[in-house]
Amino acid sequence: MPSIRQNTFLDLLPDFRNLGVIARILVAVNATALAAAVYAVPNMRGSVERFIEDAAFLEPLLFIEIATLFALSRQLGRLSYPVGCTLVVALAAALAAIYQAVVSSLQSPAAMARSALFAALLAAALLGYFRLLVKAFSPALAEARLQALQSRIRPHFLFNSLNAVLALIRRDPKRAERTLEDLADLFRSLVSDARRFVRLSDEIALLERYAEIEQLRLGERLRITWELDAAPSDALLPPLVLQPLLENAVYHGVEPATEPGDVLVRIERRGDRVIARIENALIEAEAERAGNRMALDNIRERLALFFDAEARMNTRTDAGRYRVEIDMPYLTRARTAEG
Amino acid sequence: MSVLRVFIADDEAPARERLKELLLDIAHEVPTEVVGEARQGLEAVELVPGSSAQVLLLDIEMPGMRGLEVARHLAGLENGPAVVFITAHDKHAVEAFELSALDYLLKPVRAQRLAAALKKAAAGRPPDGEQLAQAHGDAREYLSVTERHRIVLVPVRDIVFLRAEQKYVTLRTKARSHLIEEALIALEHEFEKRFVRIHRNCLVARGAIRGFERAAPSNEEPHWMVVLDGIEERLPVSRRQWPMLRELAEARNLK
Question: A163, B63: Cβ pair inside 8 Å?
Fold first, then answer.
């Protein structure tokens, strides 16, 4: 099973819109220019003058480079890491060469090549530096974050489910057994590796186990419509993304209702996207019941950790229905994992 | 020991089943008889008064009306049941129960705890309204008028005004009026978001105010009257409340 390994978080281009990244680039390039000036001119005063001279040439180029990377940040982020790096280095070199040709009096091909080489080396060095930086900080952070996000279950659900099982043990021991098995599966997935992608088919099985338990508690009050015919069972997604949404739908749309509540679960593939939608009735008195936002933020963050900007989650209320929709890429193999 | 009459209110069928099983299990210790069941809060308010129940096992997470409000409406009954609250997991409620010295059980309920709670409830008395109001903390969604074996609920959102008259408060909806035994000052505090005081003795639903009218009866000083939605009657505004109401009116572009 492919998984989000530590490398997933490492092999990403730096975010060129991040202020910290921009600041680091500025400092590093200028420091290099200063070092070069100190090395080239033997006396201190001359070095400073040389640096100022170089800076006057260098600074506008640097801003052009950063602005370009800033603008292309999204597109670059979608590329695989090696391709992205190559492109960034090539871009830096090309911009430097053009800049040299346009601005400077030295319009010889040799001068252009020199500038391009200088820019390419610096860009490559900086990319290496950013990779080390991410390596140093990211995995622990991301992992801690994921675990914290995932290990949330509504105690309300747990205790009520246990209570329902207790009620079953004497009357219907078989069903009690099944319910405990379902609960066990649900908890196994809660404590499983949060970094690992899961198959949609497994996630759907989990949804069905969860629904089974809720059905036991709520009986005919809970009516779930499953539209899963077009669901691509081999699609990969972060674990426990859909179950909390179904739990929300039951908690906010069925439990507080005095009438039976309909919940819709629809998962389908549209081209290279997977669209999952969960809908429930909007209960008026339900607005103040807390807890919903947290689950949504949690899921949104996890989608971002797994899919970056490629997945979206939207919520909408209309015609008395509350709807959550996740739009994520259809992946069958984790792109970034090597295994 | 005489048989204790128990009423069960829980929205989940398995939970009700479980309680009934436990009651049978502890029957040798505390003999009980289940005299009624409710699956929703409103149903409990409707059925408990006529049930002659001595103890109410009341789940606090129910649709329609949550357990604490149910208990508040039942508190007005003359021979109302003692209440044992049941919750699966509501930290907030548990803290409130502890603070207000109300009995509660945690789900899943244990037989021994249930027996102890029933014994205590049989010996004790029903929780009083103040205790419950404190534990509830929220504004009620209904006000209740207690008749002999019946509780009439009036949705707070239907109330146009509340006016103190001697011992009672008159509660007026578009359709009719009721007398309730509550203090206007407590009502003002509980529903401050919905009602505004226009006079020493009167609270008016903010949403029901259509405008203001200048009244100048011959033998009195002129004063302002509130014009209400769906009700003919105009209510006088006291001099003291007028500046505040005028601001409200200006903010909403009335008058």
Answer: no
